[in-house]
Amino acid sequence: MTYQAFLIKYSEIGVKGKNRYVFEDALVRQIKRSLYPVEGNFVVKKQSGRIFISVEGEYDYDEAVAALQHVFGISAICPTVVVPDEGFDAMAEAVIKYVDEEFEDKNFSFKVMGRRANKQYPMTSMEVAAEIGARLLDAFPEMHVDVHKPDRIIYVEVRENIAIYSTEIPGPCGMPVGTAGKAMLLLSGGIDSPVAGYMISKRGVTLSATYFHAPPYTSEQAKQKVVDLAKLVAKYSGPIDLHIVNFTDIQLYIYQQCAHEELTIIMRRYMMRIAEHFAKENDCLGLVTGESIGQVASQTMQSLNCTNAVCSLPVYRPLIAFDKQDIVDISEKIDTYETSILPYEDCCTIFVAKHPVTKPKLEAIEKHEHLLDEKIDELMKQAIDSVEIIKVQ
Amino acid sequence: MIYFDNSATTRCADEAVEIMKTCLQEDFGNPSSLHGMGAKGKDYLKESREAIASILKVQPKEIYFTSGGTEGNNLAIKGGVEAKKRRGNHIITTKIEHASVLNPVKAFEKQGMEVTYLGTDEYGVINLDELKAALREDTIFVSIMMVNNEIGALQPIEEASKIIKGFNKDIIFHVDSIQAFGKMKILPKKMGIDIVTVSGHKIHGPKGSGFIYINEEIYNIMVPQILGGGHERGMRSGTENVPAIAALGIASKLAYEKLDENRNHLYSMRNHLIEGISGIEGVSVNGHLDENSAPQIVSVSIKGNRTRAHVILNALQDNYGIYVSAGSACSSNKPAISETLKSIGLEKDLLERTIRFSFCPENTMEEVDSAIAALKELVPMMQL
Questions:
Q1: Distances, alpha carbon A50 to alpha carbons A10, A76, A157, A286, in Å
Q2: Is the reported ipTM for this assembly greater than 0.90?
Q3: Contacts of B323 in chain A (CB under 8 A)
Q4: Residue B129: how many CB atoms within 10 A of its CB?
Q5: pTM
Q6: Disulfide-capable partner of B188 in A184, B60, B139, B193 (CB 3.0 to 4.6 Å)?
C-alpha cells in the first residue's frame, strides 16, 4: 500500500504546559532536518496534538521511516491513509478499503479507535468507533471484535480530513534536539562516549565534541574512526562540531614529570580543562563523558572526584550507573558498536600505567600537578590554538 | 609510499593488468562456448595452464584453477581427506599453518578424525623426528606449508616427503606453497608432493586467482568441493575466471623468468634490514637470520611500553608512509594471538609486539634504508 502521510506521535512533549509549542516546533524542525536527505516532497505540519507529514508523489518509504526513527521526541510513526471528509458513509467505505488492502488475511480480532480533533463532527469518537466497527464486521465476516486484547487496532481520526492507520512504528522517544541547550561531549574511539552522546542528545541536548589525538602514538585511522563515530551520533543529534586536539606534547610532558600511576588521572584532568575551554567558547552549558563508576581505574568515585574538580561547568555522565553490557547493547542499537571496536588505539589506552592509582586523593593530585608548572600553560595554549575543527553532519 | 606488505598482497603487474583488460573487454568469450570467442577463452586457459605446468615440471592437466589460496587449501584438504577416509582416521599438520589449512583440518577433527599438530623449534621449523614419530598406520593425509607466512620459516619439504612416502606412499602429502611460489623452485614430482596450492595475488597476479596442482595419480579419488558443470576436469566447477587465470599465468611466468635475480635482490634487502635494525634497543628478528629463511619476510618484535603492533604499524604509515603488517595480515582485522609466534617460544609480551616486513622484487634498497631510519626514530619514542 502507498501511504501519502505519516502521523507522528510524541511522548513527553504531550505533558508540557504552555511551553508545549516550543517543543512541537523543535520536533517539526528536527523532522524536517531528518527528511531533508530523503528523496520526496514532504510537508511537515503541527495539527492538534499530532504532527502530520504529508508526501506528494513518489518517495522511498523505508528510507523515510529510517530517517524518522532517528528523531528524538517521536514515540511512534504511523503510516497513514488520508481521505477527504465527505460524510460518514464515505469514511466507512475508506476504512473498509484500507482494511481490505492492508491485511491479506482477515482472520484477526480488532477494535476501532475513533478520535475527533474536529469537535463539530456530528458523531462522538465512541460512536465513530462503534459504527465503523459494525461496518467492518459486515464487510469482512471473518474478522471479530476484541476490545481488550485485539490483534489489530484500526485508528480513525477525524480532522480536516480523515486519517486511517493501524501500524505504529516505534520512534526513539526522548525530547527533540535543540530544546535543552548545548553540551561538549568528550568523544573517544571507545564504546562508551558515543553512547553517552546519544543519550544526552535524547534529552534534547545539542552537541559539540572534543577528541584528543596523540600522533605518532595514535593513528590517522584512529582519528577517522572518531569522525565516523561522530557521524553516527550526528544522525540522532544533528550536526556536531568535532574539535580535534593534538595532545601528544601534553601527554609526554605529564609522562616525564609525574608519577606514572597518576598519569591517567592527571591526563584526564587536562582533557577536561581543554574540553571546558572549547565548551565555553561554544556556549555549551556542560561537559558530557562516557564514564561509568568503577569501569576502569580513572572512573572510580575517587578518580571522578579528582577529574571533576577542574571543571566549573557541570559534567553530565549519562552512563554513570550502567553496566558495560548495557552500554554495549545501546551501542549495538545505535550502530556505533562495530566502529567502536575497530582496533585503532586512543591516547587514553596507549599511555596507561601498569598499576594506575584507583583511589587518588584530590589534594595529592593537585600538589603533584605543580610539577608541570613550568611548561603546561604554554603546552595547553599550543594545543588549544592548533585545534582542528571538523563539521560533522 | 613504501609498501612492505607483499605477503598480504602485491601490486598487480602491468602485463597481468593488460591481459585482464583484453580478456574482459575483447576476448571475453566463455571457454565453454563452442564458437570462436569461446575457443579464444579456452586458449588463454591452455596457455596459462601450460606456463604453470612447465614451471612446476608437471603435466598441464594436473593444474586446476581456483579462486585463490583459501579455496585451494580447502579443496586439497577436504578433497584429499574425503578421498582416503575409508582407509584411516588420522591427519598430520603443523601448528603454524594458515587458517585456510587449520580450519578445514579442525572441521574434520570435530567430525571425529584424529589430528597431530607438529610443533616447531625456535626458528619456526618442524622437527622431522617428530613427524616420523607421528606417522601411523591410519595416517591418510599430511599438510605442511613450505614457507611460513608470518616469520618466513622454510620447512624441509623434500625430507618430510621422503619420511612420509617411505612410511606409506598412499598418504597424501599436501604443501601450501602460497608464500613459496615465485620465490623458490617447487618441483612436486621430484619433491614427492601430491598437492600444491598457490595464490595469484601474492605474486603480482590478481586477487581471486590461484591454482592447485594435483598429482594425476590421485586425480580419480580426489573429491571435488564445488560441483556443477564439470569445469576443470570436474575438480572445480564454475565458469573459469579467464581474465584472472590469464593474468595468473603471466604473473607466474614473470616470477620465474628472473627467479634467481629476484631472490638475490630479496635476500639483499632482507639482510640489509636485519643488519640495519639490529642495533636498535629492544628490537629482535624472529626465525633464522640467514638464507635458511624465506627471502621476502622479516618478522620483527619490539620490546616497549607502546610498541603494540597496531600502534607501530599505524605510526609507520602516518609518519613515514611505510606500510607493514601486524604479525600476519590474514586474520581479517581481528587481533588474534599468532600460533606461529607462540610456537617459536616468543615471550608472551612480544606476541602482540611483532610486525612483519614483506618485500617484493619491486622494492628497493633505498626503501629499506628509509624503513631502518624510521624505526630508529620511532622505536625509542614508542618505548618511553
A1: 7, 11, 11, 32
A2: no
A3: none
A4: 9
A5: 0.84
A6: B193
